[in-house]
Amino acid sequence: MTKDPLIGRLVDARYEIVDRVARGGMATIYRAHDRRLDRMVALKLMHPHLADSPDFVARFRREARAAARLSNPGVVAVYDQGSLDGIAYLVMELVEGPNLRDLIASGPLTVREALGLTAQILGPLGAAHRAGLVHRDVKPENVLLPADGSVAKVADFGLARAVTEVAQTTTGNVLGTVAYLAPELITTGSSAPCADVFSVGVILYELLTGVQPFEADTPIQIAFRNVHEDIPAPSLRVPDLPESVDELVAAMTRRDPHSRLDDADTALDRLRQIVSTLSEAELAVKRGGATGSVRTQEVLAANAEAARTAMLVTDGTESDADAAEAAADAATPGAGLRTVSLPIGSIAPDGAAGGRDGTTRALDRSRLSRGADTQNTQPVARHSARRPRRRAVIAAALLLAAVGSGGAWYFTAGPGRTVPVPQIVGMSAQDAQDAVEAAGLVWGAPTRAYSDTVPADSVISCSPGADTRLHPGQAVTPVISRGIEQKVVPDVVGSTQEDATSAIVDAGLTLGAVTKTYSDDVASGMVISCEPQSGSTVDHSSAVAIVVSLGRQPATVPDVTGMSVEDATTTLEAAGLTLGTQSEAYSDDVASGMIISSSPASGAEGYHHGDAVDVVVSKGPEKVNVPDVVGMSEREAVTALEDAGLDPQVSRVMGGLFDTVHSTDPSAGQSVEKGSQVTVNVI
């Protein structure tokens, strides 16, 4: 295999490329060492053929800046951007570990594992939706699972949009992506946060079943089915799946975007509500088949705590059935020991039912199993009618026992009376207090917390939650919003890039795009400016972009010899230089008014924009006046002419009998070029 020529290359005098991690349809990912901060990063280099599109390059960088604005532990952070040999690159957080596609390849997951991973995907998508961004390409390949067990991370925010605006997806790329596209993305190209919810719903289906909802030979056939068919209930493949999980998948993947869950935050709230109703047995349901590789089991085990946190589930949670049993014991003396008689047929089979004679009878489990199998063969069947939950049995028993014993008063007007906690989330604090007190409950001492989504002085949440039944006079404790937490942008102008980064992070903000440019006034490596400006008050989730100086821009001294002063001035200015001192000198080779030489000479290094270049301008050949040597002896005349820089040529008349100069040619006083011949006539 040919070695990648970029391995070992140093990018921007900072990022040393170590090896290649992956190659996709849009870019190649490299592992690189950030020498400046001494850390490993991921360097994503755009494919050269995409660099020919100015629109794509601009969108690539713009979308990278948008992704950098997201401050969420579940988003792969973008640290830097630049270009290498004219090709755009991004520097991102390096996530060591598999992606979700690797995990799915090992087989279906339990309900707990599938919902835990789904909750971790919805978290960062919710942050994106609140920031006005739609991912548009949510798929298992874009969900990374850190080997250290920290929260799963979603990658490539916004980049898919840049790709599709340059060219429609290619055959090699569509098959892995089209299964997750919302119908409206396929039919009209329009997108909203609910399109991302659809994609996550398909991923949840795949986590539960181990397969995609639709199979076909070509991408267009899958796209057609996405548009024209509802996502099937996962319980058709996982018979014991809780009905509420089926309903969650359906709510997330409705074909009509207006009927679908609005955004990731809404979907996450629905998921958490469902988790709170599931028993341990229901959370452990898993489709039969592969148990996954050892590596898969290690990843899931490491991720378990992050999943638990994302679902707001803690160990020791009391199941609904257990709660019902406890309520029965508290409401009716001896209820835990009493046998309640129920008419046959009043409750569907669940392993035990009341006989007509008032005794408790066991059901034929084999017959029940056969009945369930028969029901499963129906293509549209859902096991909600197959067997009621244990809590339904207990609730019905409690109700009949209470009515039969004359206990209705106990629950409607007596000590057992309860009222539901009103829905107050989103209300103003005053309206919420009025609603709680109107229900006969007590307004507990509020706590206050910042919120990115709930306006100031409105209710973020309450404990107990809405619809929980309490005895009159019990307290409902609210959490009131302080609004979006505000931070002050620190003064980083004039600081080094490292110090500026630390100051921004210490201020509770995130570092945004880092742009580098030349500056005549600011030393290399120092911050020229930031946006928002220092001293500004901004939302805590804001990113601060900085402009870092590369120092003075280097300049190459051009060759201006032989040019006129005017042409030399124009040439120097085009190179970022200025014309300096002009001196003059005679030249036998360079015409008058033309440049003889420059200082520094052409090609000299170490000079920068704005530096001056001195020139020597030719005065042409030097002139001398022919001296008057008439009457001198031949020797005297020759000496005088040579001293004047002329070339004497002697002509003797009649042999130069008198050794006296009679005349010269040119004659005395004429101006001639230095070195010219002068004929001396001697008689």
Automatic annotation (TrEMBL):
Its EC number is 2.7.11.1. Residues 15-275 form the Protein kinase domain. Residues 358-367 have a biased composition (Basic and acidic residues). Keywords: ATP-binding, Kinase, Nucleotide-binding, Serine/threonine-protein kinase, Transferase. Residues 348-388 are annotated as: Disordered. It holds the Pfam family PASTA. One of its GO terms (molecular function) is protein serine/threonine kinase activity. The keyword Secreted does not apply. It comes from Actinomyces glycerinitolerans. It catalyses: L-threonyl-[protein] + ATP = O-phospho-L-threonyl-[protein] + ADP + H(+); L-seryl-[protein] + ATP = O-phospho-L-seryl-[protein] + ADP + H(+). This is non-specific serine/threonine protein kinase. It is an enzyme of class 2 (transferase). Gene3D superfamilies: 3.30.10.20, Phosphorylase Kinase, domain 1 (3.30.200.20), Transferase(Phosphotransferase) domain 1 (1.10.510.10). Residues 483-550, 551-619, 620-683 form the PASTA domain. InterPro entries: Kinase-like_dom_sf, PASTA_dom, Prot_kinase_dom, Ser/Thr_kinase_AS.
